[in-house]
Specification:
The protein is mostly beta strands. The chain is built from 4 helices and 27 strands. The N terminus is likely disordered.
């Protein structure tokens, strides 16, 4: 309102009376008459409207009374109404009827925005290491099974990695990484965020390939036919023949072995330690443990039958001895 060219304003209250004294001085007192030539000016509350949305995303459009505090007391931004993270705002418009020096009445409109920001909730995660073995197909569930996370928020987080085979394929032995990300398939995922550190390790361990040459015992002069056994294990657990067969040629073609003999037929009787040497080759998916074999050469067993002799008494020259090999070979 305007008194003798001076603009005044008041907030709050429905209606209040002021005494306007000579010279345009405004006095607020009850016992009028202190000054002469006074007039009474009545000030009423300005019109205040509000538009926008509350924390639930519901439209707000109406009139408020009681001053600016009415915005905060109206329950528009009650946290219980919160729907989603984001920015919510209302615009408060105050309209004041002012009397100007030229005695005209004009509406003065003042608009002010009020903004509330609801930040996404940060889900705390601990990306721990997943240990597995070659030939084991890695799934998202495998990774999430080792991640430290509150069960209430687990559905909002998933893992991505080049090592994930969807349960149908597997990767070579080695070190891999996985990243934790928000699960965009989960309704309301945008209300959450993740910390800066969301990368974990996947350790795909080699299988143990044990190749062993059996010890051989031969008679002197004989050749040796080496015998070789293989055992493939995940840690302490050997794979069965059926499991190896199911893995197919793509698996068994990754390793091979060749026995090499340092012993040769005709070598003297005795023990030849490590005479069966295994030459083993394998890909990086296997940790090789090979054991060479021994050759024990024993005397050859033969049986000789001497021929009968016949001679005349007094003969000076003995007849020649004859024999026949009746057992074994030479």
């Amino acid at each position: 309102y305007n008194v003798k060219g001076q603009l005044y304003a008041m907030a709050g209250g429905d209606e209040k009376s002021f005494t306007v004294c000579t010279g345009g001085v405004v006095a607020d007192f009850d016992d009028g008459g202190i000054f002469s030539a006074v007039t009474v000016l009545t000030v009423t509350s300005a019109s205040m409207t509000i538009t926008g949305s509350d924390l639930g995303g519901n439209a707000v459009d109406g009139t408020l009374s009681g001053g600016i505090d009415a915005i905060f007391n109206s329950g528009i931004y009650d946290a219980a109404k919160m729907a989603n993270a984001g920015t919510y705002s209302v615009t408060v418009t105050v309209t004041v009827n002012a009397v100007y020096n030229d005695s005209t009445n004009r509406d003065v409109t003042i608009s002010a925005p009020f903004t509330w920001t609801v930040d996404p909730y940060e889900i705390m995660v601990e990306p721990r290491q997943l240990d597995t073995y070659y030939t084991e197909a890695i799934t998202v569930d495998d990774i999430m099974g080792v991640v430290g996370i509150d069960e209430d928020y687990k559905s909002f987080v998933t893992a991505v990695s080049s090592a994930i085979g969807g349960g149908t394929s597997y990767v070579n032995a080695g070190e891999y990484e996985y990243d934790l990300v928000l699960n965009t398939n989960e309704p309301g995922y945008f209300n959450y965020t993740l910390p800066d550190v969301t990368t974990g390790k996947i350790n795909v361990q080699e299988l143990t390939l044990q190749v062993s040459a059996g010890n051989a015992e031969v008679e002197y002069g004989n050749a040796v036919t080496p015998s070789v056994t293989t055992v493939i294990s995940k840690g302490e657990t050997p794979l069965t023949e059926e499991e190896i067969s199911q893995l197919g040629a793509a698996f068994t073609s990754q390793y091979s072995y060749t026995p090499v003999l340092t012993y040769k037929p005709g070598d003297a009787v005795g023990l030849y330690e490590g005479a069966i040497v295994l030459s083993v080759t394998a890909t990086e998916n296997f940790m090789v443990e090979n054991t060479n074999g021994n050759v024990n050469v024993i005397p050859r067993k033969i049986q000789i039958t001497l021929g009968n002799l016949s001679m005349v008494y007094g003969t000076e020259q003995l007849p020649a001895l004859t024999y026949t090999l009746t057992g074994g070979t030479t």
